[in-house]
Automatic annotation (TrEMBL):
Organism of provenance: Roseibium album
GO cellular component: cytosol
Protein name: Azoreductase
GO molecular function: NAD(P)H dehydrogenase (quinone) activity
Top-level taxon: Bacteria
Alphabetized Gene3D superfamilies for the sequence: 3.40.50.360
Amino acid sequence: MTRILVLDGHPANGSFCSALAEEYSREAGTKGHEVRVRHLSKLDFNPDYGTSDFDQGPQLEPDLQAFWEDITWCEHIVIVHPLWWGGHPAKLKGLFDRVLLSGKAFKYVKGKTIPEKLLKGRSAEVLVTADTPGWIFKWIYGAGIRKQTEKQILAFCGFKPKGYHVFSPIHGSNDAERTKMLSRAGHLGRRAA
């Protein structure tokens, strides 16, 4: 079976992202996958890279080192996060900045424009909560965060994108609608990787 890392990428405890991540994880586990769950809200680190010298960045705090070890362990990563101002929450973006480092997640090669992808052989899936209806996200706003996440973050490091799923609108949704969204996350977990 597959080793799956699920990141609840909401910076606060008890969010609907947490519920989606837990449902995905639970259902993936019922299919025999080995699943680890990390909650961004519980990770203690400075999200600011803090230097312009990308070869001599700050040391990883213990929580970031453990998260990096989870990334190298996994075969499939699932990132569940809210859409805030058309992008990632700042702490989630800081996690990417601090962990997906040159020499670890990718490597520049002299004479080549595109770096070597050091996390090849892994896949990725993204679940996004939003207040923006899906059709507005896609057709009016152009789904810029999807392009950034799939192409400029995940694929850049070697992850093969396997799905980008928008759960919306969250604001104003009722219990029945949220139950349906949880069921959808569970279905994605059952067919994981």
